[in-house]
Amino acid sequence: MEKIHILHADMDAFFSAVEQRENPELKGKAVIVGGVNLSNRGVVSTASYEARKFGVHSAMPVAQAKKLCPDGIYLPARHKLYKNASREIFSILKKYTPLVEKLSIDEAFLDVKGCDRLYGSAVEIAKKIKNEVKKETELTISVGVSVNKFLAKLASDYDKPDGLTVIKKNDIKNFMRKLDIDQIWGVGDVFSSKLAEENIYKASDIWPYSLEELKKRYGKAGVKLFFLSRGIDKREVKSQSQIKSISHEETFADNIEDRDRLFAYLFKMSEKVSFRLHSNSLKGSTVFIKVRYSDFSTYSRQNSLKVAVNSSEEIYQRAKELLIQNDLLNKPLRLLGLGVSNLCQEGQEQLNLFAEGEDQLDKTIDQLKRKYGFNKISRARKLYLNNDD
Ligand SMILES: [Mg+2]
């Protein structure tokens, strides 16, 4: 039997919980943490479980939250405080295995394969982590344990707050049978309404379809659906030091020559790369691009920067310069890609004070994306693209 060795650890209502810890009078109350200024135009970063009962959730406009929960306590975000708590939590996680993949300030995957002789089984490690986090930080963390990342993440979400859910190999089929289709990683509103047209509402509704059929209908997304609907996920847990570069590329259905469209694609890809850099607290000092023409000839170019970057705007600008300066846009493109390498941990790079504002904007967008899926939120430039792009 396949041993369960993947953990997903996720703090419960993190920012609100930290605020409640700092000020015990807030305990048991509806606490809503928003942007720095907490203007009505801002969005909710975290709502305490008490506030969630009123329907308030993260990424909701503050103005709307105030209508739903007028007596709530609205606090501006204090990121330094949350970062310090996060550092403590990650140092606990890293005690059990070097394979910790940070997803955000309060969430990580762990691979504890081979750690059992030292610390016990994966479930025992999960219990130890929960106890230690509570003891050291007075905060609660939910942990999911299973055979892969996808199932571990579903498990950690299953019994929040302060949950510990284990999905064993033998439980997978039953667990997946009941799962709503939009709970599957990568299935957003657009895709799930497309699937609803075929009467597909549950993960198990996918099971009768063959891999070939799903691939023909939905392309790559269909292949993913085939495997994930059965709880199969081959992605490995990667610690930050194992990541050498982060990139994204797209092959177009028809070759594209129109520069505005290509730049729109470039921006969409730089947002994806930026999102992943931020998620891993990484910055990179080399930006590279790749193009392929209709005759399959392929070129890549790179540029080393004095200051490491991770904002989508900077990555986009550098990539665009590479394309223009090297005169790579004079023929229709079949493929376009960009990426960032020479990575370093955020905070260890040379500081670029001018980039701060842009960073903050990216972080807000990242947060919304994590909540609502990728295609919902983006900046104006992507309007050049159709929904299907
Ligand atoms: Mg969380």
From TrEMBL:
Positions of the record's site feature: Substrate discrimination: 15
Cofactor requirement: Mg(2+)
EC number: 2.7.7.7
Domain UmuC: 6-188
GO BP of this protein: DNA repair; DNA-templated DNA replication; error-prone translesion synthesis; SOS response
Keywords for the protein's UniProt record, in alphabetical order: Cytoplasm, DNA damage, DNA repair, DNA replication, DNA-binding, DNA-directed DNA polymerase, Magnesium, Metal-binding, Mutator protein, Nucleotidyltransferase, Transferase
Role of this protein: Poorly processive, error-prone DNA polymerase involved in untargeted mutagenesis. Copies undamaged DNA at stalled replication forks, which arise in vivo from mismatched or misaligned primer ends. These misaligned primers can be extended by PolIV. Exhibits no 3'-5' exonuclease (proofreading) activity. May be involved in translesional synthesis, in conjunction with the beta clamp from PolIII.
Family indicated by similarity: Belongs to the DNA polymerase type-Y family.
Protein name per Swiss-Prot or TrEMBL: DNA polymerase IV
Lineage of origin: Bacteria, Bacillati, Bacillota, Clostridia, Halanaerobiales
